[in-house]
Write a structure and sequence with these properties.
It is found in: Membrane. It holds the Pfam family MatC_N. This is Dicarboxylate carrier MatC N-terminal domain-containing protein. About 80% of the residues lie in helices and about 0% in strands. The protein has about 450 residues and is mostly helical. Helix 4 runs parallel beside helix 15, helix 19 packs antiparallel against helix 20 and helix 20 packs antiparallel against helix 22. The longest helix is centred in the C-terminal third of the chain and has 29 residues.
């Protein structure tokens, strides 16, 4: 077996092990870079270290640290409460509000699973309380998180843009960002129509509690004695007090620190998009200024940095750096291009990205598959910008699968559902997206864009 095939086999083994066992793929990739680089390619440690993406590490650490500070000082919760309050009694608007909040969080630097973990419990709680299809609500949250995931300030966007820039390919940051947002928005609109959103629009603004909850209350009323009913009266009084407390909390204005945090997020966008300053340094600077206002939050915020995701991303990037120095990237790209036409090679890579990402990490897929496409993209037969958009969205939109982190979070937070039936629904939908999305994206962004 040639060294190129052996290094590819090791990469495939990493995906399998990381999928079957709860082991961070970044750790596997660092070890793989050491073993393959040292014993297969005969590279010294210094050469292996050259593949470590220091700029990407700083970007990931900076934006996740800033987001952690914003979460710890209550800014995220405050913005969520304001957004939910803004819909008033318009129940049909709630799924779209959740879509928008999830998209906003990922667009300013939250990792997609973190955004879903924050919004899914709130969204699915609303679904149970107001009779909204939980599948609709859960999918709106995930597609929202994926829709905002390729802004220039986001994790996915940062990874993709740095890989494309390093490869010397044409770079259009906003093309990928709008492709992801537009496609996920279109899918969300279709889901809204198919899964009961139109019925929600015909509901009155004030919605009674679900029938199941009312029936449960009547059964409890009949079952308990007069003494239990007296106790229930006390509980109801406490619940009323709690509701009043929640209402006061929703009406409370933001704190000075929360206003500063919002200004910091706006400044992050202006400084990185308009003045082209490094997003890692800028986000760390803003986070430091915010922690000076509340130094006791620093330790908690540092603990909330997405170290597992950072380890995964920089580990895979380091291994890909070893493959590049070995010539494996060029070997695979030329082999794929030689097997079929460039258009079909692009479709094949989109399918591979979708299938692997449905079970493994999207960030790992982006970090490893985009470099494989560089050789045939440099030929000019396929639009590099269109392919990057198609590959990026294909590799992330499939995170609705219950085998991915986002899908699993939706499944875990669904309320009042048959878990097995809900799991099957997510699995069927995930399979359809995995099969259909790459073809549609390839046609829209590669075929029509070439």
């Amino acid at each position: 077996m040639s060294q190129h095939l052996l290094s590819i086999a090791v990469l495939a083994l990493m995906f399998v092990v990381a999928t079957v066992l709860p082991i961070n793929m970044g750790v596997l990739a660092f070890v793989g870079a050491f073993l393959v680089g040292t014993f297969v390619a005969g590279m010294p440690a210094k050469a292996i270290f050259m593949g470590f993406p220091a700029d990407l590490f700083l970007t990931l650490a900076g934006i996740t640290y800033l987001f952690a500070v914003a979460q710890k000082n209550g800014t995220i919760d405050w913005l969520v409460r304001l957004s939910v309050r803004a819909v008033g009694g318009r129940i049909a608007a709630i799924p779209w509000i959740m879509f928008g909040i999830a998209a906003l969080l990922t667009s300013v630097g939250a990792v997609s699973p973190a955004a879903v973990a924050i919004i899914a419990p709130i969204a699915l709680g609303f679904a149970a309380r107001h009779g909204i299809n939980p599948l609709l609500m859960g999918l709106m949250v995930v597609h929202g998180a994926q829709g905002g995931g390729f802004s220039p300030m986001s994790i996915y966007g940062g990874i993709t843009n740095k890989i494309v820039h390093k490869a010397g390919l044409p770079l259009n940051e906003m093309a990928t960002a709008f492709a992801s947002l537009g496609f996920n928005l279109a899918v969300a609109a279709g889901l809204f129509c198919l899964l009961g959103g139109l019925k929600l629009m015909r509901k009155p603004r004030r919605v009674a509690q679900p029938v199941a909850a009312m029936a449960g209350g009547m059964a409890m009323h009949e079952a308990f004695s007069a003494r239990a009913m007296a106790g229930a009266t006390v509980v109801a009084h406490l619940d009323d007090d709690a509701s009043a407390h929640d209402a006061r909390k929703d009406d409370a204005p933001g704190t000075f620190c929360q206003y500063l945090t919002v200004m910091g997020l706006v400044a992050l966008g202006v400084l990185t998009l308009y003045f082209k300053l490094d997003i890692g340094f800028v986000s760390l600077t803003i986070a430091l200024l915010l922690t000076l206002m509340a130094p006791n939050l620093q330790k908690e915020a540092l603990n909330q940095i997405s170290w597992p995701e950072i380890m995964l991303i920089v580990g895979v990037s380091t291994y890909v750096g070893v493959l590049e120095k070995m010539g494996t990237i060029a070997f695979v790209g030329n082999s794929v291009a030689g097997l079929t036409s460039p258009l079909m090679a692009a479709l094949l890579l989109c399918f591979i990205g979708a299938v692997v990402s449905a079970f493994a990490s999207s960030t790992a897929v982006l970090g490893s598959l985009i470099p494989l496409a560089v050789p045939f993209l440099q030929g000019g037969d396929v639009s590099a910008i269109g392919f990057i958009a198609a590959m990026a969205v294909s590799s992330t939109i499939v995170d609705v699968s219950p085998f991915s982190t986002n899908g699993a979070l939706v499944l875990a937070n669904a309320q009042g559902v048959d878990r097995q039936a809900f799991f099957r629904s997510l699995m069927v939908y995930g399979a359809l997206v995995t099969l259909i999305a790459p073809v549609v994206l390839w046609f829209l962004f590669v075929v029509l864009g070439t």
